[in-house]
């Protein structure tokens, strides 16, 4: 019997080629989408889960209150790790981590630029980064020691063994000794670095990080075994009050919180001082999209199989007459569904192998097909069974319910209930499609809004160049020479990049300041001509100028800072920042110096023409960027021959802030097209069947004088009415979902009615195009052929 069932199933597939192709194509495309998303979701969920003591590792974040509003971030003081270990006995290890950025390393004649961090001696005791050489207890204890990756060791010394104890030149300033070599950082680590330097050395180089009010480095802890995380979090909550002296009248100005380290990557957003959302939102979003697309494909199968049920009515009648019970028939039809799904999965795996390289490019991942992992095959078999059973369940129950007497007499009629159910499936299918289309349109609009918004400065023709080696000391010479070169308008400097200013400090004072006010100011140090080079708008006052020697102690503030400080006319008024008294020399119109997810916060810019680090900002003349870059490269080689010349355009750096949104937009575009394609395949199949089933009715109508236009309207109206109903259901759902997503941006595009109208018009147009071919074909057929008796 099993062989008989397989034969019958195969013959049905071969006999109804168009029906089989549509079912197979819909299922295959749906499965490819679902498998791609499954691989991506699994890759995201695996990040930072490889650490041995994962359940005892926590990230520390700091929350402060300003004017009854809570603000939180992972940035803390650079000495917080020591304070935590000193005061909380349940904390076994604690390590501050500072991002050093990219620096130049030299061994002999070989010079390479590498990105890395600084951390203390607890780092390798906490995290499971495998050491190939060295001791985890002593790897980061030497002030002038450095731990490097296998790749960096092989690049400079040929092997990890040869690297131990060797000297490596850092930024042409100091010689560091290799104290450890660690295995290359795995792909599923959220932190990427090629080297780690000693934390005390970092604090010596960055005195600002020692201040208790500074927000910059991150801190991570490992609890002792059997320690209660909830109890530890209570203990650290008000720890800062002991050191910052800001506790007033029972109100706490700064609070500390804990988050499991494995959640740091996916749950990294703060809303009103509380952890809320992050990349997990995109993981959930695409998981839902995967289910949507697979459901759409399953609905196609249900609809097409149920619609063609009359074709198999006699087979079912005969089987029942010779003794087949309903349960056996249900198993047969579900088995056929599973067989078709299995074949579709084979095609899907083939397509998956072809598409995965392009998918990796879009998502900026390195995902491989895990054929060697048993769990992958378990999941694949589960998908086959679930998809096969879900898509084949209703047709199996429906087909097995046929009355054999009516079937064999030829008096069987399809009940209206099954027709209503089938139409309901079509409506549900297009509801999902319309939601995906509207979501895609609004996501694309937001991504375009991000790229086109006025940031308050001109990001075009602006170049960032890191100040490395001897260049900070020679910056005055570099600047003078660069301004004489063709294609260069102006030159200045800043201690960070204008698209990502994150360091903040609360050590401020001014006339009339409320002693209970705890306010954090984003801060950076800038050089002469900063406003001119950035093309910022000055609301009052002036930029830093050599004409006024007192400007070296002056401050530039933005509108947001001016409002918080409260001076009616801020220019010339007193301001003390980081215990350095000075005067406000200018007020800048607010500009975006961070992601649009965040509101523009109060900012203080201090004088930094003589800083020992940072970036040069060069404004090039429009259309002369290549000429300017070539000139800068020649000048750089003359002044800083031991370092590699590198630069970044401001607009490119800005785009990196929204990599996640760009990936979501690209994937949404692709999945929206596929959702429409799958839905239209189902609509095409139903149109084929409807035209075939009503062929005699059409012939009679033509004989009685019906026009081709009226017949086309008759056949297409049924389907279009279902699409309109789907739109009416989908639009409110899509509006709610997209509005929630847009609220994660402090600045976003408005949701307008025409977006929904455009999406609806598009889906109707596609639906008309899909059914029109078979509707017109049926309307044009010669009535003599359609009415000819068998």
Summed up:
With 790 residues, the chain is an alpha+beta fold.
**Low-confidence spans: pLDDT under 50, at least 5 residues?**
246-252
Q: What does the largest sheet look like?
A: 9 strands, mixed
Helical fraction equals 40-55%
Which word captures the global form? elongated
| Secondary structure category | alpha+beta
Amino- and carboxy-terminal Cα gap:
33 Å
Our estimate of the beta-strand percent is 15-25%
From the alpha-carbon coordinates, what is the Rg to the nearest angstrom? 34 Å
Number of strands: 26
Number of structural domains: 3
Tally of contiguous helical segments: 25
Mean pLDDT: 83
Name its key features.
single chain, 790 residues, alpha+beta, 6-stranded mixed beta barrel, elongated
């Amino acid at each position: 019997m099993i062989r008989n069932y397989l034969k019958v199933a195969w013959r049905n597939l071969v006999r109804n080629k168009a029906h089989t192709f549509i079912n197979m194509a819909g299922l295959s495309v749906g499965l490819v989408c679902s498998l791609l998303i499954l691989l991506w979701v699994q890759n995201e969920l695996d990040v930072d889960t490889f650490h041995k003591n994962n359940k005892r590792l926590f990230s520390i974040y700091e929350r402060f209150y300003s004017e009854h509003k809570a603000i939180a971030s992972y940035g803390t003081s650079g000495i917080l790790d020591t304070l935590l270990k000193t005061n909380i006995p349940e904390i076994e290890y604690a390590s501050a981590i500072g991002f050093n950025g990219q620096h130049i390393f030299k061994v002999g004649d070989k010079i390479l630029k590498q990105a890395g961090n600084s951390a203390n001696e607890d780092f390798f005791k906490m995290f499971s980064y495998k050491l190939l050489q060295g001791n985890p207890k002593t790897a980061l204890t030497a002030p002038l020691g450095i731990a490097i990756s296998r790749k960096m060791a092989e690049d400079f010394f040929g092997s990890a063994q040869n690297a131990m104890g060797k000297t490596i030149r850092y930024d042409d300033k100091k010689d560091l000794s290799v104290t450890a070599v660690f295995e290359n950082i795995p792909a599923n680590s959220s932190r990427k670095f090629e080297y780690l330097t000693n934390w005390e050395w970092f604090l010596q180089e960055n005195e600002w990080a020692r201040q208790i009010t500074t927000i910059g480095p991150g801190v991570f802890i490992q609890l002792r075994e059997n320690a209660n995380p909830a109890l530890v979090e209570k203990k650290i909550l008000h720890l800062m009050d002991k050191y910052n002296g800001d506790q007033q009248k029972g109100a706490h100005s700064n609070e500390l919180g804990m988050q499991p380290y494995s959640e740091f990557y996916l749950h990294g957003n703060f809303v009103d001082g509380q952890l809320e959302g992050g990349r997990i939102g995109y993981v959930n979003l695409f998981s839902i999209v995967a289910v949507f697309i697979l459901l759409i494909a399953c609905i196609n199968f249900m609809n097409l199989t149920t619609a063609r049920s009359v074709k198999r009515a006699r087979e079912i009648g005969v089987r029942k007459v010779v003794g087949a019970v309903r349960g056996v028939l249900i198993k047969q039809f579900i088995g056929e569904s599973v067989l078709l799904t299995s074949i579709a999965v084979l095609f899907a795996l083939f397509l998956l192998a072809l598409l995965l390289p392009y998918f990796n490019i879009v998502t900026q991942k390195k995902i491989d097909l895990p054929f060697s992992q048993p769990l992958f095959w378990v999941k694949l078999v589960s998908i086959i069974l679930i998809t096969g059973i879900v898509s084949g369940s209703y047709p199996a129950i429906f087909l097995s319910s046929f009355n054999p007497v009516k079937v064999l007499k030829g008096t069987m009629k399809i009940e209206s209930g099954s027709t209503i159910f089938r139409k309901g499936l079509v409506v549900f299918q297009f509801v999902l499609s319309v939601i995906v289309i509207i979501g895609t349109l609004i996501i694309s609009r937001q991504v375009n809004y991000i790229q086109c918004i006025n940031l308050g400065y001109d990001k075009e023709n602006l170049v960032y160049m890191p100040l490395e080696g001897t260049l900070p000391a020679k910056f005055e010479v570099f600047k003078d020479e660069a301004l004489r070169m063709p294609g260069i308008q102006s030159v200045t400097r800043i201690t960070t990049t204008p698209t990502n200013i994150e360091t903040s400090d609360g050590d401020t004072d001014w006339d009339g300041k409320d002693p209970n006010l705890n306010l954090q100011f984003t801060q950076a140090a800038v050089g002469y001509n900063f406003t001119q080079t950035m093309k910022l708008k000055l609301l009052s006052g002036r930029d830093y100028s050599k004409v006024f020697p007192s400007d070296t102690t002056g401050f530039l503030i933005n509108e947001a800072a001016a409002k918080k400080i409260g001076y009616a006319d801020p220019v010339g008024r007193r301001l003390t920042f980081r215990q350095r008294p000075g005067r406000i020399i200018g007020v800048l119109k607010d500009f975006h110096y961070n992601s649009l997810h965040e509101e523009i916060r109060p900012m203080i810019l201090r004088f930094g023409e003589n800083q020992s680090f940072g970036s040069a900002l060069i404004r090039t003349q429009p259309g002369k960027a290549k000429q300017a870059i070539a000139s800068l490269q020649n000048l750089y080689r003359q002044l800083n021959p031991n370092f590699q010349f590198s630069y970044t355009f401001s607009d490119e750096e800005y785009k990196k802030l929204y990599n996640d949104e760009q990936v979501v937009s690209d994937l949404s575009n692709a999945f929206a097209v596929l959702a429409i394609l799958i839905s239209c395949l189902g609509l095409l199949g139903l149109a084929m069947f409807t035209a075939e089933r009503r062929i005699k009715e059409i012939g009679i109508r033509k004989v009685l004088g019906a026009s081709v236009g009226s017949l086309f309207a008759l056949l297409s109206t049924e389907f279009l009415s279902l699409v309109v109903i789907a739109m009416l259901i989908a639009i409110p759902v899509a509006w709610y979902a997209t509005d929630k997503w847009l609220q994660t941006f402090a600045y976003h595009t408005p949701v307008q009615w025409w977006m929904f109208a455009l999406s609806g018009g598009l889906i109707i147009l596609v639906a008309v195009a899909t059914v029109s071919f078979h509707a017109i074909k049926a309307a044009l057929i010669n009535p003599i052929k359609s009415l000819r008796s068998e």
